[in-house]
Amino acid sequence: MKTPGRKRARTAIFVTVLLDLLGFGMILPILPFYGQQYGATDFQVGVLFASFSAAQLVFAPLLGRLSDRVGRRPVLLATIAASASAHLVFAFAGSFAVLVAARVASGAAAANFGIAQAYMADVSAPGERARAMGLVGAAFGLGFVLGPAFGGLLSLVDRVAVPLGAAGLGLVNLALASAWLPESLSPDLRAVSRAAPWLDLRRVAAVVHSGPLFGLMLLLFTVTFCMSMMEATVALLVQARFGWGDVETAWLFVFVGVVMVATQGGLIGFAVARFGETRVIPAGIAAIAAGLGLLAASGSVPALYLAAALLALGAGLNAPATLGLLSRLAGEGSQGGTLGVARSFGALARVLGPLGGTWLFGHVSPGAPYWSGGAILAVALALAGLLLRRVPAAGRAAAVEAVETAPPI
Predict the structure, then answer these.
(1) Are residue 180 and residue 229 in the same domain, yes or no?
(2) Three-state helix/strand/coil letters over 155-184
(3) What is the pTM of this model?
(4) 109: which residues sit within 8 A by CB, 6+ positions away?
(5) Which of the 8 DSSP states describes residue 95?
(6) Calpha distance 246→219 (Å, rounded)
(7) What pLDDT sits at residue 2?
(8) d(Cα 215, Cα 207) in Å, to the nearest integer?
(9) What is the Cα–Cα distance from 354 to 360, expressed in whole angstroms?
(10) 160, 210: one domain
């Protein structure tokens, strides 16, 4: 593919990911309230969150391998169409069961994020891939910031306008991708992939048998589990404590997104260059634990926003540093497989976290998901200190590059 074609393809996939994430971000803040419309209990709200991640966990490796065999373009187009259709079903669900089915379909379609990353790698020369992956991360961040803002504005019209707007964006995305997105994978490479097995469990076994890698995976799982307990219940918390609805919750999500993008866009590179991942990772865990503790005790809006800032700062430091360190430890020949296993650990945490968080919220107390998450992370922080002492030191430049090119999870 010539350079102008590469630039066009990278721009096209950037727009595709951005529009996809806008739709996701629009629905996320109103999800608990939509479930309540159909009589969902607190735990059933957790099921709504978990069903999306469970579908991603199952479909991400399958769709990734399918795209290796038949090409990126047809799988991306099919998943964009499925996402728009799922948003329409969500808008007019009529029952909680249909609502869950719509979220399962959305989660399966959202498994195309890994395909978008593979597409970027296909159309980028080796020296361009860091910047290309940065474009995917930028689209992810913009979608997470702008999506809740758009959703909050549409909520002023009517709650159903939010998923309808997300579906409309999906249809626009489908039209643009159909007209503008070329195939990135050559017929020869597709033929090679068709001759390979669908799934290779040796990658998982290799990670399990590597002490530092497996320890970092467990640490990533624990942090993601505690964060997802918070994400699934925070709308219920602000509803119970402050009487907030769709709009106020959407702006809280916008604030979190802005802090996280600022952290990942600027602070993380400086922090890793100055201190290294082995110090940044514990700092991120400590900030998240403090944010969860403050969230459990928050009785005022300023305290709530301070807790949200700590959570966003901690997540913005911890996840990229952990994934960057995993990428560096894996070595050149197995980064893709290792980061794929890391995404599976993260997806599993996002299945279990909302279920545990909403159960604690409904059966123990509204603050239980946060103080219990903070306690878990306090233990994880101590274990992280022991684990990270076993990680070999590396040059600062390599560390910064690994962090800045590590994909979101």
Answers:
(1) no
(2) HCCCCCHHHHHHHHHHHHHHHHHHHHCCCC
(3) 0.82
(4) 79, 80, 82, 83, 86
(5) S
(6) 33
(7) 44
(8) 9
(9) 10
(10) no
- Both tokens assigned to 404: 């800045």
In whole angstroms, give the CA distance from residue 281 to residue 220. 10
| CATH for 159 | 1.20.1250.20
Residue with tokens 């878990």: 376
User: Please, what sign has the CA dihedral across residues 301, 304, 306, 309?
Assistant: negative
Give the sign of the dihedral formed by CA 256, CA 261, CA 264, CA 268: negative
Q: Which residue has the tokens 């059933």?
A: 44
- Domain coverage including residue 335: 200-409
Tokens 């361009």 found at: 128
The answer for residues whose C-beta is within 8 angstroms of residue 311's C-beta and 6 or more apart is 227, 230, 256, 287, 288, 291, 292, 295
Residue 377, C-beta contacts closer than 8 angstroms, at least 6 positions apart: 222, 223, 226, 285, 288, 289, 292
> Which residue, 198, 227, 262, sits at the end of a domain?
198
Residues of the chain with pLDDT under 70: 1-5, 126-134, 185-211, 265, 327, 330-340, 391-409
Structure token pair of residue 317:
């430091």
Phi/psi of residue 124, nearest 5 degrees: -125, 135
Numbers of helices and strands, H then E, in the chain: 18, 0
Is the distance from CB of 405 to CB of 133 less than 8 angstroms?
Answer: yes
pLDDT of residue 369: 96
